[in-house]
Amino acid sequence: MKNIHFLILFLFSISTSLHYIVATSLHVKYLPGFEGPLPFALETGYLSVGESGDVELFYYFVKSERNPEKDPLMIWLTGGPGCSSICGLFFANGPLAFKGDVYNGTLPPLELTSFSWTKVANILYLESPAGSGYSYAKTPRALESSDAKQIHQIDQFLRRWFVEHPEYTSNPFYVGGDSYSGHIVPGVVQQISLGNEKGLTPFISLQGYVLGNPVTDIKISNHKVSFAHRMGLISDELFESFENSCGGTHMNVDPSNAKCLKDLQAYDNCISEIYAEQILLPNCPVDYRLPVIPQTLPNIKIGGRRELVEISGNDTSSLPPPSCFTYRYFLSAIWANDENVRRALGVKMDLGRWNRCNIQNIPYTFDNDNAIPYHVNNSRKGFRSLIYSGDHDMMVPFTSTEEWIKGLNYSIVDDWRPWMMSSYEVAGYTRTYANKMTFATIKGGGHTAEYKPDPCSLAFKRWIDGKPL
């Protein structure tokens, strides 16, 4: 019996080495900026992926505060592409957040949140692709990424993570993300499902997926003008003229169509000082520039002003005022570039400067114009899905999300109705379809869950427990 056991271990060690599995993990008890020991279980680490193990993906794993042995496990993917999963962990749905205090030159302090999704689920926050957050590539070629490559590497990461954490293989598994992850999450779901069908191990107990304000296809910009009109940002006359001159679309604009180009320029003049991620908020500086996604729109911007601001742990000259919603983004750069923080997290110390969103520095190919076929395939296989959308987001208007969901042509089983935070507060509106897809708006919400974290948290908690919103 001992010989058989030894043989199994020997064969497993060969198989893992042949697949370049290199894992390092750390159980984090204390974090700089937070007083006392962490009241939740946090693990960080690296896993090697890629054909030759030349990509090191960094992750944060937070155990559920309810029942980690039985509760669902979800991997959370931040958008960008190229934004750090700190966006999820510290802003959208994790157990910690930066205090909004005026920066005093010390390490920005952290506090516990009341809205963490980890109260009911285990969450694995992944930095993907290489170049995001603390993830890195060992060669310039390995740094090159794309939608398809991300999907493949995330599936690869998960299979290897479960090898290192076999105690979670029986937990219900979900894939989640927001913004540009709308191009990645449904593809990862399909990839995992196909792998399970082919007998890949470990088997992943995939149940469904969660998406917030997801980018789904490049035609999304067509809805920005109609959204601006519905929100009173452009006049009736301009909207009607745009509909007539441009045919109601930003796409395939004829450069010789002077009237259409004039209307688009007038539209851009009206919204140029609007903070597109939440139109009610001041248009404060942000710490990234929008990615250059292929467009057919000639020389016309399709969103509010964006600035690329370089800030290191020692440079505070570019800090916006604390009244700005984006203030915490700059605090995150100070925190994440601190050597003591990196040491506590087990980060490779020679990675260079951390950026919350490293969009411009990753060679990225946008090779998936339309994620809808993934949703079609995932629906056919019976996976549950929750799609939520902040109704004041102009980057990915809720109307564009409604359109592609309706385009799936599934019948409605629970028609449009308000869903409630309490007996006297409407949290948003929801509709459920026959393909087990629930769509929900977040009243007053923006581009990500952080703009209205409490209703987003409540929607997730009810949905993950199989309850109606």
Automatic annotation (TrEMBL):
Family: Belongs to the peptidase S10 family.
Keywords recorded for this protein, A-Z: Disulfide bond, Glycoprotein, Signal
Tagged with keyword Signal: yes
One example of a Gene Ontology biological process annotation: secondary metabolic process
Signal peptide (UniProt feature, chain positions): 1-23
Pfam family membership, one: Peptidase_S10
Sample GO molecular function, one term: sinapoyltransferase activity
Residue runs in coiled coils: none
Superkingdom, natural source: Eukaryota
Name the UniProt record assigns to this protein: Uncharacterized protein
PANTHER family the record matches: SERINE CARBOXYPEPTIDASE-LIKE 19, SERINE PROTEASE FAMILY S10 SERINE CARBOXYPEPTIDASE
